[in-house]
Specification:
single chain, 252 residues, Conserved hypothetical protein from pyrococcus furiosus pfu- 392566-001, ParB domain, 60% helix, elongated
């Protein structure tokens, strides 16, 4: 069993929310919001890579869901013990034992749970409340630090994304790049200034008629003057060179 902070949206519960009284759920929800978090960790089981199901704490889970609906940023995460399938039977026995010890009636009676909680709190000493306050403050501090860490990580990821050059497909270059940049790219692929100008003029003329559908279409439609004849402005072999050179320039 390991302690984690889990995203609430990745948790599912096989016990319906209708099993619990709205007033009791709303009371716990308000308490969670006022204190800044749930002090009793849920017990969850991992059912796939990023999805968990509630093993114990179904009532608390729905209260956290309500808190998240009211304040998504603050209650995005919840503390939980995540158990393996091998430990599930042992953990369920432990949960059942605690319910039997604490129950003053039906273990699933939410009214009795609320009354029992009030009774337990009435027996708290000042030292007990002091310890509880320290635990809540500690959880608040951990949650605040985790939010800061997540924000920093998000900012770093956005910074890295902005620094990564966006790959433009060769066909998109021929169809959409402005004439000046297209001329420059052709010259980086070995075209002379004169031929680059001729090819760009032909590309502009042809793509105004109809966008190129493939690189083969570019080879067939783009022509330049050679004396009284018109010849291909880009041969098939040259197109292979262009794609190779543009790719290497982009990623080096």
């Amino acid at each position: 069993m390991k302690f984690y902070t889990v995203d609430v949206k990745n948790i599912i519960c096989d016990v319906p929310a209708s099993n619990f009284e709205d007033d009791a759920l709303n009371n716990l929800t308000n308490t969670i919001i006022e204190s800044g978090g749930l002090i009793k960790p849920l017990v969850l089981k991992n059912i796939d890579l990023e999805t968990y199901t509630v093993v114990d704490g179904h009532f608390e889970y729905y209260a956290v869901v309500k808190a998240r609906e009211k304040n998504p940023r603050q209650f995005e995460m919840v503390n939980a013990f995540v158990i393996s399938s091998n430990d599930e039977e042992k953990i369920l026995k432990q949960v059942a034992t605690f319910k039997q010890l604490n129950s003053s009636g039906d273990p699933e009676d939410n009214t009795s749970i609320e009354i029992r909680a009030k009774s337990n709190y009435s027996n708290f000493t000042n030292d007990d409340f002091s310890v509880l306050k320290q635990q809540i403050d500690h959880l608040r501090s951990e949650l605040a630090q985790e939010r800061q860490d997540r924000q920093k990580l998000y900012e770093i990821m956005k910074l890295l994304e902005n620094k990564i050059p966006q790959q433009i497909q060769p066909l998109e270059i021929f169809n959409n790049l402005n004439l000046l940049e297209l001329n420059f790219r052709l010259r980086t692929a070995g075209f002379t200034d004169k031929k680059a100008v001729q090819v760009v003029e032909s590309i502009e003329k042809e793509r105004k008629k109809k966008k190129f559908e493939s690189l083969k279409d570019v080879v067939e439609r783009v022509t330049i003057a050679n004396g009284k004849k018109r010849i291909k402005g880009i041969s098939s072999d040259k197109m292979v060179d262009i794609v190779d050179i543009w790719s290497r320039i982009l990623f080096n």
